[in-house]
Design a protein that fits this description.
Elements: H1 9-12, H2 34-39, H3 59-65, H4 69-105, H5 108-111, H6 115-141, H7 143-162, H8 167-177, H9 181-185, H10 189-196, H11 202-217, H12 222-232, E1 252-254, E2 259-265, E3 279-282, H13 284-287, E4 291-294, H14 301-318, E5 322-329, E6 342-344, E7 354-355, H15 364-375, H16 384-402, H17 408-416, H18 419-431, H19 435-448, H20 455-463, E8 484-485, E9 495-500, H21 506-525, E10 533-538, H22 547-555, E11 561-567, H23 575-584, E12 587-590, H24 596-606, E13 608-620, H25 626-639, E14 644-656, H26 660-666, E15 671-677, E16 683-690
Parallel strand pairs: 4-11, 4-12, 5-9, 5-10, 6-9, 7-8, 10-11
Antiparallel strand pairs: 1-2, 2-3, 2-16, 12-15, 13-14, 15-16
Length: 693
């Protein structure tokens, strides 16, 4: 948000719909230790790893750590005892050998019978044998692991208790834990002092830090920054809604990196060593390539993926780093209304906001094209081109005549060819002196009216689904209805929730879903200011996708935007869209219980990898002479078994990372298989993740 917080509230919200009244900040669940949170280590890690307090494990250490305590200590002790005897007798033997070798060759100190020569020989023998003993028996007894696991922590605690930190060390530790060090060093000590006296949450910290970075870009803004913080403290540069926290916040977030932790990557051979037992998280770096999740109802797609991501995007919006649009059924658990600034519920008379069917597009032809594609059902997409043209022939002239787009009832009347509506349009064009520009469009529509293949009649029938009493005022364009939300405001940190009437008007909900996703893809790619991450979450995307949207998903990677799409099954999509959709998204999630034909697409997308395969072959033992053969015959007569030889063969073969059968039948409940791709192109192979914790 930069220094926008220093401006007036009216100036900040002129380009956005009216936001609801500020939500009261809920009481903190536990006291928030800002210093500890801000100074927590966040080492570099692969995409998908929750980096706060993450410790990268050495694979060898991780393997050794699996050994239980008593077997490890017993093995170390036995090797120590054997090593001690080997050291005693080895030292004496090596000393005798060195003396003998010195006398035979005449080498100085080794051949001298003096006390100095004997001490030199003894030293060489001790050092040589000790090195060999430690190397051999230390490795077999895993002494380094015993030292790391038990001796080192005990020694560290002892040293810490006995040697108090110096004043310089205490001062340096305090400086590192001071979350406002950069403000003090940058000339804003007064602002830092005000913040020290207040309870500052992680949302406040990230928002103020972002404003500070904007002020650092131009020194002229530094006085305004200090003044704003001095006046408002932790509420400085607040979100336009003045909200500073989400009520009922449940997930673990690290807003410094924009990460939300969803679970834990399992410690299984299929997972890469860098992710085993590490926290699993999503952030704008991977969501910027868009995510597709497939799984039956009840497997946790909404509760364990969509809701946490929606919560993360809303928190980032409050911190001034993102904008969020969340689409789902009215009864979908995507967070309470208090999480959002704008709640749109077509079909609900209590809804405060309406929806702009044209997305506030500047070009009438572009607005009409998107609306036409959204209106047509999947089985009529072959007529999309003629329908698009027909709609453009009505929307363009109406916009030129009246300076606005037509409402649902007005557009339906024009497409149906009602004489009164057409006459009013012609009068408006004459008054605007634009009739000549659109005369051919009107004549073409007049020629098509009444024909069996008239796309206008088809579009009018589809618009009738939105021209219902339940939707009164929801799509008004003349200022008489509810304030319309337009998707072009994605350069503001808004939080938007759209509740689709899937139960009462299912086909209208499908059209609106397709329209909103298409508008988001267009608006996000056309933003001039891309400093905010634009995130879209669609709880059920089965009706929201078409070929144009799938193509547009790939363009979002360079626009600092991403889409999270949830599907019950890929069968809900036209077959021609399934493979292109898999190629358009960079992150894929398979939930338990998916159909084998859905698992086949995941399996093909994830490909194969090399695995070490061991084959054991058993064959009858025919070796040896008469005595051994007679013994084998006697054994067979007594036990009924034939003596066999065993041969073991190890080779590397290509195997599917996850087979369709594994995805369909082997995934445990509460888990998912997730593959990630970062915006930079870095990829993470499929991970088995436990999403329950």
């Amino acid at each position: 948000m930069g220094l926008d917080g220093a401006r007036s509230h009216d100036e900040r919200t002129t380009a956005t719909p009216r936001t609801p009244m500020p939500h009261p900040r809920p009481p903190a669940r536990v006291p928030f230790d800002l210093a500890a949170w801000a100074s927590a280590p966040r080492p570099e890690a692969d995409p998908g790893v929750f980096r706060q307090d993450h410790r990268q494990l050495d694979p060898d250490r991780a393997e050794a750590a699996k050994v239980p305590t008593w077997p490890l200590l017993l093995r170390a002790g036995l090797n120590a005892v054997v090593g001690w005897f080997a050291y005693l007798y080895g030292t004496q033997l090596l000393m005798y050998l060195l003396v003998w070798f010195g006398r035979q060759t005449g080498i100085g100190p080794l051949a001298e019978p003096s006390e100095a020569g004997a001490m030199f020989t003894l030293l060489i023998a001790n050092v040589a044998v000790l090195v060999v003993v430690i190397k051999v028996f230390g490795r077999m007894g895993r002494w380094p692991e015993v030292w790391r696991r038990y001796a080192l922590p005990l020694l560290s605690r002892t040293v810490t208790e006995e040697v108090p930190a110096t004043e310089e060390e205490q001062s340096e530790a305090a400086r590192q834990r001071d979350p406002w060090t950069v403000l003090r060093q940058g000339g804003a000590a007064v602002a830092a002092g005000r913040l020290d006296a207040e309870a500052v949450g992680d949302v406040d910290y990230v928002r103020i830090r972002r404003a500070w970075e904007s002020a650092q870009a131009d020194p002229a803004f530094l006085p305004a920054f200090v003044e704003q913080v001095s006046l408002r403290g932790a509420a400085a540069f607040a979100h336009p809604s003045e909200a500073r926290e989400l009520p009922g916040r449940a997930e673990r977030h690290d807003l410094l990196l924009g990460q939300v932790r969803l679970g834990t990557a399992q410690d299984v051979p299929k997972n890469p060593p860098t992710h085993r037992s590490a926290g699993f998280a999503l952030d704008p770096v991977v969501l910027g390539t868009s995510l597709l999740a497939v799984g039956p109802a009840g497997t946790g797609k909404t509760a364990r993926l969509a809701r946490p991501v929606a919560e993360a995007l809303c928190l980032q919006a409050l911190a001034g780093t993102a904008c969020a649009v969340v689409i789902g059924a009215a009864d979908a658990d995507l967070g309470p209304d208090a999480w959002y600034d704008v709640v749109i519920a077509p079909g609900d008379p209590a809804s405060r906001y309406g929806l702009d069917l044209y997305g506030a597009a500047q070009d009438p032809d572009e607005a009409a094209a998107r609306l036409a594609e959204a209106l047509l059902p999947d089985e009529l997409t072959a007529r999309a081109e003629t329908a698009r043209t027909a709609l453009q022939q009505m929307v363009g002239p109406f916009h030129a005549a009246f300076g606005r787009y037509p409402g649902v009832r007005e557009l339906r009347a024009l497409l149906a060819g009602e004489p009164e509506a057409l006459e009013a349009l012609v009068k408006g064009l004459r008054a605007a002196e634009r009739l000549g520009s659109f005369e051919r469009d009107l004549e073409h529509r007049e020629h098509q009216r009444g024909r069996a293949d008239d796309p206008g009649a088809l579009l009018a029938d589809r618009l009738a689904l939105l021209d219902r009493p339940a939707f009164e005022g929801a799509f008004a364009t003349d200022g008489t209805g509810r304030p319309p939300f337009a998707m072009r405001v994605l350069d503001h940190p808004l939080r938007v929730r759209v509740k689709l009437p899937e139960r009462s008007h299912p086909e209208a909900a499908r059209m609106l879903s397709r329209l909103l996703v298409g508008q988001f893809v267009q608006a996000a790619g056309a933003r001039g200011d891309r400093s905010l991450f634009a995130g879209l979450v669609v709880d059920d995307a089965s009706a929201a996708l078409d070929a144009g949207i799938v193509r547009g998903l790939q363009r979002l990677r360079g626009a600092n935007a991403g889409v999270v799409l949830l599907l019950r099954t890929l069968v809900d999509l036209p077959e021609a869209l399934r493979a292109p959709l898999f190629g358009a998204v960079g992150c894929r999630v398979a939930f338990p219980g998916i159909a084998p034909w859905d698992g086949r697409l995941f399996s093909e997308a994830w490909g194969t990898h090399l695995v070490r395969e061991t084959a054991v072959t058993l064959a009858p033992d025919t070796s040896g002479g008469i005595v051994r053969r007679a013994g084998r015959l006697g054994r067979k007569a007594l036990s009924g078994t034939t003596a066999q030889t065993e041969s073991v063969t190890t080779r590397e073969v290509e195997r599917l990372r996850w087979s369709p059968s594994d995805l369909a039948h082997a995934l445990p409940a509460g888990h998912a298989v997730v593959s990630l791709t970062a915006v930079s192109g870095e990829q993470v192979p499929p991970l088995l993740v436990d999403l329950r914790g």
